Amino acid sequence: MTTAAAIDLRSDTVTRPDERMRAAMAAAEVGDDVLDHDPTMRELEETVAERVGVDAALWVPSGSMGNLIALMIHLRRGDRFLAPRGAHVLGAELGTAAWLAGGMPDPLAAKPTPQELSAAIGGKGPYYTMRTSLLVLENTHNGAGGAVTQPDDHAKLVAVAKEAGLTVHLDGARLWNAAVALGLPPAALTVGADSVQVCLSKGLGAPVGSLVGGSVEFVAEARRVRKMLGGGIRQGGVLAAAGLVALSRIDDLAQDHANARALAEGLTEFGWQVDPPETNIVLAGVPDVEFALAGLARVGVLGTPMSGKVRFVTHRDVSAEQIRDALTRIHAVH
Ligand SMILES: *Cc1c(COP(=O)(O)O)cnc(C)c1O
Fold this sequence. Notes:
Layout: E1 7-8, H1 19-26, H2 39-52, E2 56-60, H3 63-74, E3 80-84, H4 88-91, H5 96-99, E4 104-108, H6 114-121, E5 132-138, H7 151-163, E6 167-172, H8 175-182, E7 195-199, E8 210-214, H9 216-228, H10 237-247, H11 253-269, E9 273-274, E10 281-285, H12 289-298, E11 301-302, E12 304-306, E13 309-313, H13 320-333
Parallel strand pairs: 1-11, 3-4, 3-5, 5-6, 6-7
Antiparallel strand pairs: 2-8, 7-8, 9-10, 10-13, 12-13
Helix pairs in contact: 1-10, 2-10, 3-9, 6-7, 11-13
Pyridoxal-5'-phosphate binds at residues 62-64, 67, 88, 138, 142, 171, 173, 199, 201-202, 210.
């Protein structure tokens, strides 16, 4: 069966900068961000810090680098850190948490309770006990199908971590999606975190860029570590300008969420095992993931394997009409 253009639901990272974004990039005011500061970078960093509820923020080329910088600052070599099972820092960053930040990863439940977290942290123990110094949270939780953590659940986990003397890093690659799903400002979901990472290159559609934020001292150190990792860039305003346009599109994510629900409902009608999506990620259980993905690709519907399931991610470059089209195509082969 031959098809029209593929409907690309592999990730919200496939979103392309549109004309308005490219025009903003072309017109950006720039300076040397390594020497002193690029004015558009500064504007983006200040805007994101305010949105996310931290004192300061630093632009980084990728979410992985943002997470890594935070881990490098929070961890000493050999420190144990905790993160929900399936977290990006555990399984999707090539082991850099251990390789470069020196951390000993220990997975929690995908959605840990405060009691489970407390038990995992454990008591202080004698001097030869491994030191547990960091909790990493992820909101939304990508591997758990874009699951949202409510602010009171977040607060309880942070309280347990703080009580035990841990620092908290929040991987908020899709914090915007969580905020839109809950109808809350992003800053309501970061309370108590020592550092936060947010992506502009996912559903918000920027070609590149994340920010890592926290206290002024944290960001000063993060700037040094970014330079160590080769992430210091010169006239970054060209990229920051795309980020500012991306930030103006947070409300549009509601459409992606509606599209994800429509996709999940359609697949459920076809008899697929699908949990109702909380945001823009649909995880579908199938008997054979690779076989299912190959069949889908033949009709021009692209997904990826994740958590032993087929993952579809809705995004701004796929319309509600294309979701209906995708369902028609899937129905034809299923
Ligand atoms: C995409 C993503 C990141 C960072 O990804 P990059 O590709 O490095 O920008 C981090 N955490 C989560 C949960 C993500 O989905």
